Structures are given as structure tokens and as C-alpha cells.
Amino acid sequence: MLRSNKVLLLLAVLAVCFMVQPAWADALADAIAEANPQGEPGYLGIPGGPQINLIVALLWAVWVGWIFSTVGAFGGIMAGVGHITVFGLGDYASSFGKGAKLNNLITDSIRVSNQWMVGCSAALSSFNYWKAGRLVLPLAIALGIGSIAGSWLVPWLTAGKISLKAYLGYFGLFVLFLGCYLFYETTPKGQAGKQAAKKAADAFQKSVKEQKSGTTVDMAEMGVKVQKFTPTMCEFTFFGVEFKFNPLIPVVGGFFIAAMASFLGVGGGFLLVPFLTSVAGLPMYLVAGTSALAVFVGMINSIASYMFLGNITIEWSLIGVELVGIVIGSIIGPKTSKYIPDIWLKRLFILLALYVGIRYATKGFLGYSIVPPF
Description:
Pfam families: TauE
Number of strands: 3
Order of helices and strands: HHHHHHHHHEEEHHHHH
Family: Belongs to the 4-toluene sulfonate uptake permease (TSUP) (TC 2.A.102) family.
Oligomer: single chain
Strand content: under 5%
Radius of gyration: 21 Å
Membrane topology: Multi-pass membrane protein
Protein name: Probable membrane transporter protein
Keywords: Cell membrane, Membrane, Signal, Transmembrane, Transmembrane helix
């Protein structure tokens, strides 16, 4: 079954390449002719473009897959850090100046490359968390339904029109805001209204400890069990604790989250995590899997819309190496996350959000970053 899925994925990728490759080539040739760069061919075959070390790309992709599959967020953002900073594509794109075709083309390439990585991690993570009983399927589907329109609308409106400087600024600003909000949720006041989530997290952690000590515990059997589902109400239990939500709310939320994520070229997990912990009141142990499936739906739509409507150019050799790393990290993540306390999963999210948010907001709006790179 797994092998057949890989074959189908490969065929889908080849079909996309075949249908849009001429448009990519024309757009890239026009951009190179306008800028007239000099030097040895590098990224995207651009003369003088950055030469990316594929071993570094592989290791970075493992990290991206692990962090996304562990907290349900920051896959796209960490992929962006890799493409923009670690591989030097950000400074290279900026060197052509605002409004230059190569600036916009490389920026769009970064956005879509991020999404290829996150889409792969989301597919693997959702399947692994579903097997473990840590995915709220009705909630993820509701978010996914809402994400379809949002993930098609933004690429159609913005492809080829966003400079790297504007992209970096908004990228950082939204991440910083979400980090601050999640920090509030870890305070006593923020946790006061999350008693069900805390109770479920405590029960889950207790079972993990029992399992680790040698006691036989069927973790999947105690996982998510849907008790009731209607167009206006869904009820489910997780380790004996009952949760409920109105499916219409995540449909609306999914639209706005996917639109913002598609604009930023990320998976949207950094928006989904606060939504799932605050609006749905879920413990972090359910957030990663539920977020992953919702992200996967959005990624399929956003990647397709960017590549068909926007004619985005991608470095396929780099993407191939990165997807191998993503698979490795995404398999490890669900196996290790159950040993990390719920509160520390949130704190890991917050730490990354503050670092990434400050770094890219200041670089985008001030022209330089006030914090050092990794």
C-alpha cells in the first residue's frame, strides 16, 4: 500500500512538471534576460546563483520534518529559514532590487519550495497520528474544507507580485504575534479556561509513563473516539475526557488560516496551533496530528494553484533531497513527541516563534535583523 502511494505521488509530480515546464522556462528566461546576471550557473540554473550544499539541505529537511510532526507547526517557517537564510536565497533575491523579475521569481520559488516540504511532512504525520489515535478527523476535515478556497485565492492574487522585503516583514510579524499569544496561554490566567485539555494531557502522560515502566497500555484504543457528529456539533473523547465543537467555526477559520499561510508560503500550522488550543481547546498531544491533516489539504491546493496559475519555477534536485529528509524527520517526530510534556511542546513553539518572528520582521521592515542567524 505504501509503495503504491509513493508511485502515485511520483506520477503526480511528473505530470505537474510536464504540463507547466514550458511556462516556467519562459518566465525564468525573461527574468534572467532582464537582470543579465554573470557567473557559474547556480540555483535554478541562474548565472551566479547560490550553490546549495545538498548534504546541508538533507539535514535541514530532517529538522523541518521533525519540528512540524512534533508540534504541528513551523515546518513551513523552518523550511523558509533554510531557503532564505541557510542557503542564502533571501540575500540573493534582494540583490536584484524590488520589482525585478528575478527577485519576484526567486521569492515565489521559496514560497512553493517551503510548501512542497510541508505537504510531504503533513501527509506522513497525519497518517502516523491517526494510527496512534491522536488526530481529530472531523475537526481536521472541517478546517480542510475551509482551506480550499483560501489556498486557491491568494496565489491567484499575489503570484509574481510580492518582493522579498515585503514577504519577510509580514512573515516575521505574524509569527511574532502568534508566539506572544501562545506565551499568554502558558500563563496561569491563559490556562484557567483549558481544564479539559489539561486533564486529557495529564491522563495521556500518565499512560505514557505506565507504558514506559512495562505496563501494557493500548494508547490507540484510549485515543480519539467520535461520539456525535452533526453539521452544528461534534463530540469526541480523548483518554476519557470529553471535547465538543461546532464544525462551522473551523470551516470559517480554515479559510482565513489557509489564505494567510498561502500568502506567506508556509503550511499554516503556526496559525492552526493557536486555533486548535484556544478555539477548540485541544491538548498539544492532539494538535500536531489534527493540524497536519488540515495543512495537507491546504498544501495540495496551494501548490497546485501556484504552479498552474503562477507558473512558479522550482529547483527539483533540491526538492528531491529535501523530501528524503522530510520523510526521515516526519517518522521520528510522532514517536518522540509523546515523551515531551504538553507544556514544553507549547514552550518549544513559543521559543521558535519569538526567534523567527523578531528575525524576519526586523529584516523585512528595517532592512537588517537584530538577532543572529542559526
